[in-house]
Amino acid sequence: MAKSIAGPEIERLIQLLAKLPGLGPRSARRAALHLVKRREQLLAPLTTAMAEALEKVTVCSACGNIDTHDPCTICTDTARDQATVIVVEDVSDLWALERAKALNAAYHVLGGVLSPLDGIGPDDLTIRQLVERVHRGGVKELVLAVNATVEGQTTAHYLMDQLEGLDVKVTRLAHGVPVGGELDYLDEGTLAAAMRSRAVL
To answer: Which H/E stretch holds residue 82?
Structure first.
């Protein structure tokens, strides 16, 4: 068993940082050391920002985005085309598409993909809310911007079945998105080109 080389407070900070995506134990130690060395410039403002985020950040009841108010900034943006809704797996995908400035539309975050092996079924996602949104009217096009994985494509096919008979055009991202790729890791140019080349299913 490894010996502790710092007090319990610093060790706890390292353990929590190591849980962040992209940070392993070594990177977490470096990050913790950097934060502790620069307490006034980094650690104190970060602590305040995290406390404010804990208190104010909420999930948008309309689309599933994360923001500090409900409905979110995107849903209340009157300059957006609310008749076009981009369906994404996760908030990180929404943010990736926004960085690409691919389409000035509304969004719907599913909260994941169908994965029977992981015990994730339709009731674990916001599929019912999406179908209800289309039923309410006003949505003319749904852009299925799910990842090009087996689970993503399974989810897209399930959505198509659920939307059958409804008066809405359903499109998907063009094949410019690589099979097995994830939206959050693609460059903005690829995302923008894929959005422009979307095709009717």
So the answer is: strand 81-88
DSSP single-letter state for residue 141: E
- At 147-165, the pLDDT tens digits run 888 899 899 999 999 999 9
Q: Which residues contact 199 (CB under 8 A, 6 or more apart)?
A: 171, 172, 174
Distance (Å, rounded) from C-alpha 85 to C-alpha 130? 10
Distance in angstroms (rounded) separating the CA atoms of residues 68 and 58: 6
H helices of the chain, in order, are 8-18, 25-37, 44-56, 91-100, 127-135, 150-163, 188-196
Question: Which residues does 119 contact at the CB level (< 8 Å), separation at least 6?
Answer: none
> No. of H helices and E strands in the chain?
7, 7
* Residues shown for the chain: 201
Helix, strand, coil in percent for the chain, rounding step 5: 45, 15, 40
pLDDT in tens, 89-142: 999 999 999 999 989 999 999 999 999 999 999 999 999 999 999 999 999 999
The total of other beta-carbon atoms located within 10 Å of residue 148's CB is 19
C-alpha 195/C-alpha 86 separation (Å) is: 10
Strand-pairing partners, residue 58, are 67
